[in-house]
Every structure is written in structure tokens, then in C-alpha cells.
Amino acid sequence: MRDTKESRLLLVLLIAIAFALITVDIRGGRNSPVDGARHAAAAVFGPVEDGLSSAVEPVGNAVSAIRDSGSRHDRLAALEKENAALKAKLGSDDRNRSRLAQLDKMLKIAGEGQYGIKGAQVIAIGSAQGFSWTITIDAGADDGIKRDMTVLNGDGLVGRVTTVGPSTSTVLLANDPDFTVGTRMEGNDELGFASGQGDRPLRVELLNGKAEVKKGDRLVTFGSQADRPFVPGVPVGVVSRVDPSGGGLTRTLYVTPYVGFTKLDIVGVVVEAPRKDPRDTVLPTKPKPVPTPTVTVTVTPSADAPANDEQQ
């Protein structure tokens, strides 16, 4: 529009009309005569405003997110820290539960065999003494530990003490090639000597070459003179293979040990031997055999069988 005298007059007139409408609207309140026009305008322009609001809202949210990103990042970091602490606590609780279960099993064996034991925890694997299979435990001379004492856990024979310090000791594991222990067969009392073979089953030489042995038979420690280094009755393992008898003076067996030597944690050192040989009482209860289901098939003659016989 060109800046002329008429255009200026029209602008002044429109402003005057606008002020007049505002005055009438304010004085009229809810009964304002322009209320209908307001609703009509809302009906026309409302959808347009809503569309514009929807289009602009993501931008507003983005600006808000940028503004709040610092505080959100701090909160996220705090939540991640709390989550890590919770996981660590749960892991610690799981480990404590596992140790408690190991301790319960070991105390059960000690009670059944009447062994006086000193509990200890494995703190290291291997040693500088040249042994292939050893562990270090956190109990030593200050705890009453001496050389050549039997070491066991909740599963059976772990090994024997070889070196003792003030607060730690070294234990030679039963699967070490330099390890040998006297054994006795459950039931028939056949005697032998078990030797370690590393991660392979123990090798047992029975003194009786004609002994009746089968897979699944179990062995315990025979015991040593004055109960050092081995007390009697500690579970050793289960026969997994029997070499055919060749008419020799001895018979060779291969025994899977009860103890898992690669996952030792809680162990017990026998500081007091039992007053009498516990024999086989410390062995775990044998699992009951699962009965094999039998199927009975009953043959019922068909209805037309007699008719066929009559025709013949």
C-alpha cells in the first residue's frame, strides 16, 4: 500500500475500531457481543495453530533436552554407578553363599569321620618349589598346621601339607605326579596305592592282581602310621576303568577323584585324627538306581478273525 493521505486515514480508523471493540469486549464480560466472533475465529484458526504447535513441539523438546542434558547425564552416571555397586554386592553374596555351602559339606565330612579340622581358604595356585599341582592356603604354624597333615574338603581328599610358614602353608594336591596315597576298596577292603596323573584320572595299583573290581567301585584312604600324612576313611574317588588282568602281581585301576582340583576354595586341614577308622561311613550316599520302565503289549484278536478261520 502506498503512503498517501487516504491510507493514513484508513489506518487511524482501523485502530479506533480495534480500541472500540476491545472496550466493548471487556465491559461485556461473558456476554460480550464479540464472543461469537471469537468462537468462529477459534474454529477456523484452531486447527492451523494445532498443526503449527505439533510442528514446533519437537524443536521445543530438543531445546529443553539440550538444556537439561547436563543434569540427565549426571543422573544417568549416578544410576550406572548404583547398578555396578548392586551387581558387585550380588556377586559377593553369591560367592559367600557358595563358600557357606562348601563349608557345610566339609563340616559334614568332618563330623562323619570324626576328624578335627582347621578351616582354610585357598589364596594361591602353584608355588616356587617345583611342584606341578599345589595350592597355598591361609593357615600355617600359628594355626596349629604341621607338615604331612591330610587336607580335605566337602568332596574328599585334596592332598597333604608339604611346607608350613607362620601364616600360610603349601599343599601338594592328590593329582600331582609326585603324590601317592594308600587306598582301600569299599566293601572288599582290597588295598592299593593311588598316584596322581595331572588332569587325568588317578592311577591305582591294587596289591592283589586277581581282585574282583568293576567300574563304579569306590575307594577311601587306607591311613598311614600315626595318621601322618593320611588319616583313614577319606573319600578318594570312583573307579572309571579297570585294566584287564594279565596275571601280574598287581592290578591297575583308573579312578576319577571326587575333588575338582581346578576349583578349590574352602579346604580343611586335619589337625586331629579320628580315634577309630571310620571305614566307609564318610563316602557319599550312593544314588538310587532309576527303574527302567517296562512296556507290556497285549495282542487282541480282531473281530473278523474267527470268520476268516471258518472260511478256511
Describe the SSE topology:
Blueprint: H1 5-28, H2 35-113, E1 116-125, E2 134-137, E3 150-152, E4 157-164, E5 169-173, E6 180-185, E7 191-197, E8 200-206, E9 218-221, E10 235-242, E11 251-257, E12 266-272, H3 305-311
Antiparallel strand pairs: 1-2, 1-12, 2-5, 3-4, 3-12, 4-5, 6-7, 6-9, 7-8, 8-11, 9-10, 10-11
Main sheet: strands, sense, barrel: 6 strands, antiparallel, barrel
- Average pLDDT for all residues: 79
Q: Which oligomerization state do the chains in this entry correspond to?
A: single chain
Any idea what the shape is?
elongated
Count of β-strands: 12
| Percent of residues in helices | 25-40%
Order of strands, main sheet, comes to 1-2-5-4-3-12
Q: Between the first and last Cα atoms, what is the distance in angstroms?
A: 122 Å
Number of helices: 3
Helix and strand pattern = HHEEEEEEEEEEEEH
Query: What proportion strand?
Result: 15-25%
Question: What low-confidence regions span 5 or more consecutive residues with pLDDT below 50?
Answer: 41-50, 55-60
Descriptive report:
The protein has 312 residues and is of the alpha+beta class. It is built from 3 helices and 12 strands, in the order H-H-E-E-E-E-E-E-E-E-E-E-E-E-H. Strands 1-2-5-4-3-12 form a 6-stranded antiparallel β-barrel. A 6-stranded antiparallel beta barrel has the order 6-7-8-11-10-9. A hairpin with an 8-residue loop joins strand 10 (235-242) and strand 11. The longest helix has 79 residues, at 35-113. The chain is elongated, with a radius of gyration of 44 Å.
